[in-house]
DNA sequence: ATATTTTCTAAACGTTCGTTTAGTTATTGT
DNA sequence: ACAATAACTAAACGAACGTTTAGAAAATAT
């Protein structure tokens, strides 16, 4: 046998995620990753194959980090109010540690929207579809709404959430709170 | 005297703008610009100094292209309805020629939000402030609204517009129309 | 027609990118 | 203790980036 790794993969991948989250895929260089992860290129490549592989692991890491957020959202029993809660909690997460970096998935969605990366794009679509489906379920708890209005409101809320994620990178807490309150005034 | 330029600057800068608009600043390389503009690097540098200078000219070009849109918006006399009109026309512009490329200013705003480019960031802020101010004026035509509600609605609409610009890059016409209609249901 | 001036072509510049590789160091089983 | 093996360091790889430059081509004033 031989030497063991001097780092824990789940630990360094979280550091990588934070960098990707803040700067996006292209802007984050291997040099920056070396520094932030505290290991050198050889180790990164031997653990994750290449930059793209590391990015995919970072996305996984983000998903597991936000898993409880989604679980709470899904398991809630307060219909529309759960959606609003989810919006507020999402913003709080993206503003953690005083950093304005939005939602990692939304950032990725935007950055890759014009590229032709099947793996990433498929994951992004799945993520968005999943969100939309949960929202639809929540809206359906109000049995007075017909299917047409539910579809319309779901489209509205998914896009509002998308805009919210972008906004949380650049806008003030006050502007964002105004935004969320207004979003739900007509739901 | 000597040879004259074999291209018209305003013409090639519009081609550059289209490329920047579609791909963003970083992703657009000088090589791509050469090809799209139909002139070579020497000519680009002699006309615009550097890539950044060319980008600034592209932003100017976009502003002049959207000037009439803003003029109509500002000069309208239908209050909130003018805002809705503006939203619809903005989406139509960004979908022109079948391309999904959103709003050039919003794209730039997002791409540069984490960078420290004073010139660009100042222009972006000015653009957004201007938009917000016009929206406030439109909202004020409804004299039943107090200042607090106007501020809140203005914040909401600016962010909604921001989200709309992002959405127009990836969402269907139907989803976007649903979105716009819902935005104005509670104004 | 020629000298002058500017544009154009095309190659090269120095950096940085993501990635690979040769060689050293450390840890383990025997 | 020693051989084996994996992880480490650090340098180098080719390609692409934004930018510059030397020389050829073209258009004007005299």
From TrEMBL, chains A, B:
<feature type="DNA-binding region" description="H-T-H motif">
    <location>
        <begin position="29"/>
        <end position="48"/>
    </location>
</feature>
<dbReference type="InterPro" id="IPR009057">
    <property type="entry name" value="Homeodomain-like_sf"/>
</dbReference>
<dbReference type="GO" id="GO:0003677">
    <property type="term" value="F:DNA binding"/>
</dbReference>
<dbReference type="InterPro" id="IPR001647">
    <property type="entry name" value="HTH_TetR"/>
</dbReference>
<keyword id="KW-0804">Transcription</keyword>
<keyword id="KW-0805">Transcription regulation</keyword>
<dbReference type="Pfam" id="PF00440">
    <property type="entry name" value="TetR_N"/>
</dbReference>
<feature type="domain" description="HTH tetR-type">
    <location>
        <begin position="6"/>
        <end position="66"/>
    </location>
</feature>
<keyword id="KW-0238">DNA-binding</keyword>
<protein>
    <recommendedName>
        <fullName>HTH tetR-type domain-containing protein</fullName>
    </recommendedName>
</protein>
């Amino acid at each position: 046998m031989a030497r063991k790794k001097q780092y824990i993969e789940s630990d360094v991948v979280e550091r990588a995620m934070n960098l990707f989250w803040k700067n996006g895929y292209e802007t984050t260089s291997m040099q920056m990753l070396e520094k932030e992860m505290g290991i050198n290129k050889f180790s990164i490549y031997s653990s994750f194959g290449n930059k793209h592989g590391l990015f995919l692991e970072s996305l996984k890491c983000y998903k597991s980090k936000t898993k409880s957020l989604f679980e709470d959202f899904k398991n809630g029993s307060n219909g529309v109010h759960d959606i609003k809660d989810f919006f507020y909690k999402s913003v709080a997460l993206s503003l953690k540690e005083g950093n304005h970096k939005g939602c990692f998935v939304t950032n990725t969605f935007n950055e890759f929207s014009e590229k032709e990366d099947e793996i990433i794009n498929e994951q992004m679509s799945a993520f968005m579809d999943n969100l939309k489906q949960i929202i639809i379920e929540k809206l359906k708890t109000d049995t007075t709404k017909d299917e047409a209005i539910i579809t319309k409101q779901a489209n509205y809320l998914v896009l509002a959430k998308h805009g919210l994620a972008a906004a949380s990178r650049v806008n003030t807490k006050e502007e964002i709170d105004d935004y969320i309150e207004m979003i739900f005034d007509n739901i």
